[in-house]
């Protein structure tokens, strides 16, 4: 048993398209538990901290702009191996190649360069999860 916590974001495209409930239903159906949940409207500083590893990459600026385009839902989620489990449920980063049955595969949209409209974020390691939870739930 490896009970973990992870940070999930329903990104602005997910909230704007009314997919928050659908995504939460999949999370709950999988057996993960909500510890905390809130609507967030992050400023640039918060996003720069969250996406620090991507600074300087070609998609960095469009990514921050997109993340400031509307509210997101931040979720503190817990469960056995939830970090890997949520990322599996989310699907791979690019919605076109994400497998059907995953959130990104079923609902994500590929607008050419705007690969970032992939609906959800999930922490990728225990270290990332603790760092990111500190940013969004301090
Ligand atoms: P993930 O969100 O699957 O962990 P990541 O951490 O590599 O992916 O990237 C963070 C976000 O940045 C991702 O959700 C969408 C955007 N992104 C990543 N690679 C991209 C690319 N090649 N073009 C456009 N956006 C990209
Ligand atoms: Mg990532």
From TrEMBL:
Keyword hit for ATP-binding: yes
Reactions mediated catalytically: a 2'-deoxyribonucleoside 5'-diphosphate + ATP = a 2'-deoxyribonucleoside 5'-triphosphate + ADP
Coiled-coil intervals: none
Entry EC number(s): 2.7.4.6
Amino-acid positions noted as binding ATP in the UniProt annotation, renumbered to this chain: 11, 59, 87, 93, 104, 118
MF terms (GO), sorted A to Z: nucleoside diphosphate kinase activity
Superkingdom of origin: Bacteria
Keyword Transmembrane applies: no
Needed cofactors: Mg(2+)
Annotated Nucleoside diphosphate kinase-like domain residues: 3-138
Keywords of this entry: ATP-binding, Kinase, Nucleotide metabolism, Nucleotide-binding, Transferase
Active site: 121
Protein family membership: Belongs to the NDK family.
Name of protein: Nucleoside diphosphate kinase
Species name: Microbacterium profundi
């Amino acid at each position: 048993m490896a009970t973990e916590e992870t940070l999930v974001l329903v990104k602005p495209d997910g909230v704007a398209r009314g997919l928050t409930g659908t995504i939460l239903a999949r999370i709950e159906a999988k057996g993960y538990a909500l510890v905390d949940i809130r609507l967030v409207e992050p400023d640039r500083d918060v996003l720069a901290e969250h996406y620090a590893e991507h600074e300087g990459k070609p998609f960095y600026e469009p990514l921050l702009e997109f993340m400031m385009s509307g509210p997101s839902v931040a979720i503190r989620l817990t469960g056995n191996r939830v970090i890997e489990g949520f990322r599996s449920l989310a699907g791979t980063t690019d919605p076109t190649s994400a497998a059907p049955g995953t959130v990104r595969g079923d609902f994500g949209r590929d607008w050419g360069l705007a690969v970032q409209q992939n609906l959800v974020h999930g922490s990728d390691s225990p270290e990332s999860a603790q760092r990111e939870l500190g940013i969004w739930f301090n």
